[in-house]
Amino acid sequence: MSDATERTVVLCEGAELAVEVARAAAHVGVQVEPRPSSDPAADAAMVLQAGGVAALAVATPPSPRALVSLASAAHGRQGPVVAAILAPPDDAAATVALAGDLGIVAVDEVRPFASALALVRGGARAPWAAATRQLPDVDRVRLARVVGVTERSGGRLVRADDGQLGWTDGDSVHRIGEPRDAALAIAALSAASGPSAHAASILEGVDRSAVQEVLFGPPRPLSDPASKAALQPYGVPVPVEELCTSPSRASAEAARMGFPVRIALASPDLRIWDHPDLAVDGVDNAARVRDVFRQMMTLAKSRTPAARLLGVTVTATSVARALLRVELRPLPEGLVLAQIGFADPHGVAAGDHTRTALPAPVDRIERVLARLAGATLLLSGTPTQRRETVDAIADVLLRLAAFARDHHDEVESVEVDPMAVLVGGGVELREACVRVGDAFLRSLEAPAAGG
To answer: Global pTM?
Structure first.
């Protein structure tokens, strides 16, 4: 950041948190100016835009939009913004991860927050690459997950007074707190390092007029076939499938594809992830296809009489080794919020998901996938197999993000459930839903309002 003697303004959610921040900062010798605030993220961004040095400590997770604004305000400064996000564990973990992907050094406790401030204010650029040879073995064990033992490019970690660790690049020693707090702070700096999500990749040759033809209309969720039609110009992979409006057409298409097939209801009002019984896998003969068609339409009508029923999709069978659920929403600064998790019942029940901002480099997307508890389902195999899987997932995520970014005025969200990671390699979108906002209605009303 700026001059090391300048006080860091810490915008705090409440007076109690401000007092706790002041005590933790004093423990490591960092000069701070805690300020209670009703909107810490916005106020911190204002301090940064005015040329000041700011951090924040909150108990309510900032919204993704607030984090993007904060990261934008800090962009190009001498050091990153540091944030303490003291929320319930699930909320804190997702927000801390997203903040790190945006280049914000985020932790979920006040003492590691003070340690991170000490590192940043001391000028540490890559403390995870610091030498640790002068530390006792017990401290090296505590730091082993985040600090390299043989690197020399990140300064040195040493013992300071009062059982604390210190960081030095040879000039002076900066206290950075107890080993466990220092380890969490160093991990947060590592997570915030590297290329940020601002490095956008542009897809060329996309026929946007074809997309607009599908999106045009009032606010509504598009059916799976319409959603895939909107996404198709962006080259997203979909399975071999056909929309069929009669039992005979469904059986003919199934015979052409080869049995067994998957039969799923096509309706913008009844999504398969909400009604899993409206999809049947392993249908293995023409007579069964016709029976499933009739039974599915009857069940759908009885469940929601007003639902729009377009027919069924007949899909060629493919075998997945993992099923993901992905939801994307446009953010400011040309970014897209992506929530990624497992779509199988165990993954859903466990809440196994994470968030990030796209576009992002493939290496960062791999780090995002590694945050999932079930990451071994995606990242197992040989290094070549792992790279192929990551590349395939990243390619689809970036194409979906490009769609959401290019049509942020019209599109509220894009949901894919599931996105199948196939046993034979590759990825396919099995069920998708694009939600269209009110942009077209507003464009029609604008001339009348102007007159």
So the answer is: 0.90
